[in-house]
Specification:
Blueprint: H1 10-19, H2 24-42, E1 45-48, H3 50-66, E2 77-81, H4 108-115, E3 119-124, H5 158-165, E4 171-176, H6 182-188, E5 191-194, E6 214-219, H7 222-232, E7 262-266, H8 267-270, H9 277-292, E8 296-300, H10 308-323, H11 342-353, H12 356-369, H13 374-396, E9 401-405, H14 421-425, H15 432-437, E10 440-449, E11 452-460, H16 465-479, H17 486-495
Parallel strand pairs: 2-3, 2-4, 7-8, 7-9
Antiparallel strand pairs: 1-3, 4-6, 5-6, 5-10, 9-11, 10-11
Length: 500
């Protein structure tokens, strides 16, 4: 028997397992049945881990049979971005240079999910080494948006977002360096969270820009996002940037409402050129909705954020250039054949292994770090980063959370921006400042434009995830957004079943 994962929540799975309405193995098989049905169209996954998944599911069923206490994510089918290591799986970062590489250790966040009883379905497609905003920059082909198969799911964690939106997994993990969880969350109608830098260990996640990267969840609902955060947050001795914080239950108080919450509309970003007026209006309408629920809504400006995009595209590529130097054709990954010497091996292995966007960013970053340019570019960008963090701090003296659109547009068509890198980079104009400041934010669906989801970004200061999630839950409940993608609904219609 198979079940429709798009109609099941984390809490519903737990209750169903305890009541023995279904088994964890049946849920895992249901995930693979959905993948068989839609994956040719969607391409959310680079690889599947059926043996690992079924072993994990059987372990959960054994606990149920023994009457034991189920862990927090028991039996939940989950997917992971293909830059996160898990022994027994391939980790390719959607790049030819790592094609066929098998993980020899576990990513801490992945391991925490599995230790909590989650069932690992597979690894998700992404922009190569997380360089992109559309999941078109993958060596293994683009991922398609379950809301419209001719459109992108966003990026770089587009596969992770699409897997949840298509009902192929209940939860997934992505990584967010400049918006790579929140922007695909917005474009696929899913909830995507970027935690405070240091909340979640980065150990075992292949680095893009080490001072910006952060792992976070995708889910159908805000409550499931909070439940996932409960599992993945916490200090890790393997990551010196992870922070010691008291354990929190992010689901506590999530339903307390927003009465008295101080909500600031980031007017300077909301009014930025290039934002679809309908997306802008959705943000303003949602702010008005929050005011109707008792929030104290006002306007504010965070002036330095206007420099976020240029600062990011110096800092990110600079750190990427350094991090990707290790992929040299010597230790692992693609290795060129019939080379003349070591230098030729380096040059040809990297030229053959990296795609165009990866090469572009490596070159930009290497230039920014080169002698005579470091102070003019990288040093100046770091100063801008400090200005952005300071401006956010001033804004949070007056407001508990800040609002912007998550993306300036809804999902664009595959190929529409591929030939114009600058146009593609503008997709992250709202999300990048959050990474530069190291604070937290969530994208929650707040409506549609011409049948495509619109995401609202709710930003909080350092370690304000609980407040951000409370505001997001209020938006979710009041907006009445239907999270079921047309692809999933179409499958349900074919079977004559109901998707809720």
């Amino acid at each position: 028997m198979t079940f429709d994962l798009s109609s099941l929540t984390v809490s519903g799975i737990r209750e169903g397992l305890i009541a023995r309405d279904f088994s964890a193995v049946e849920l895992a098989e249901s995930a693979y049945a959905r993948i068989d049905a839609v994956e040719t169209d969607v391409h959310a996954f680079n690889s599947l881990s059926r043996d690992l998944a079924l072993d994990a599911a059987r372990a959960v069923d054994a606990v149920v049979a023994d009457g034991g206490e189920l862990p927090r994510l028991a039996g939940v089918p989950v997917a992971f971005k293909d830059n996160m290591n898990l022994v027994g799986t391939m980790t390719t970062c959607s790049s030819r240079i790592l094609e066929g590489y098998r993980s020899v250790y576990d990513c801490t966040a992945v391991r925490r999910m599995l230790d909590a009883g989650a069932v690992p379905i597979g690894k998700c497609n992404m922009d190569e080494f997380a360089f992109g905003s559309s999941t078109e920059n993958s060596a293994f082909g683009p991922t398609r948006n379950p809301w419209d198969l001719e459109r992108v799911p966003g990026g770089s964690s587009g596969g992770s977002a699409a897997a949840v939106a298509a009902g192929e997994a209940v939860l997934s993990l992505g990584s967010d360096t400049g918006g790579s969880i929140r922007q695909p969350g917005a474009l696929t109608g899913t909830v995507g969270m970027k935690p405070t830098y240091g909340r979640v260990s980065r150990y075992g996640c292949v680095a893009f820009a080490s001072s910006l990267d952060q792992i976070g969840p995708f889910s159908k609902t805000v409550e499931e996002c909070a439940q996932t955060m409960n599992v993945i947050c916490g200090k890790d001795s393997m990551d010196a940037t992870s922070l010691e914080r008291p354990a929190e239950d992010f689901t506590l108080g999530i339903r307390d409402g927003v009465k008295g919450l101080r909500v600031g509309i980031m007017q300077d970003l909301v009014d930025i050129e290039g934002c679809d007026p309908r997306v802008r209006q959705s943000t303003l309408d949602t702010a008005e909705l929050l005011a109707g629920l008792g929030a104290e809504v006002g306007a504010t400006n965070v002036p330095a954020t206007q420099y976020g995009l240029p600062a990011y595209y110096i800092l990110g590529p600079a750190e990427a250039s350094s991090n990707l130097a290790r992929f040299d054709g010597i230790r692992y990954g693609h290795r060129a054949a019939d080379v003349e010497d070591v230098l030729d091996l380096y040059l040809r292995s990297r030229a053959e292994g990296f795609g165009p966007e990866a090469i572009r960013r490596i070159m930009i970053g290497t230039f920014a770090l080169s002698a005579g340019y470091y102070d003019a570019y990288y040093g100046q960008a770091q100063k801008v980063r400090t200005l952005i963090a300071n401006d956010f701090e001033r804004a949070f003296a007056d407001f508990d959370v800040l609002l912007t659109p998550t993306s300036p547009t809804t999902a664009f068509k595959i190929g529409e921006k591929a030939a114009n890198p600058v146009s593609m980079y503008l997709s992250d104009v709202y999300t990048i400042p959050v990474n530069l400041a190291g604070i937290c934010a969530v994208s929650v669906p707040c409506g549609t434009v011409e049948g495509l989801p619109v995401g609202l970004q709710i930003i909080g200061t350092h370690f304000a995830e609980a407040t951000v999630l409370r505001a997001a839950y209020a938006v979710e409940q009041a907006s009445g957004f239907d999270s079921v993608s047309p692809l999933v609904r179409g499958l349900a219609d074919k079977r004559g079943t109901t998707v809720s």
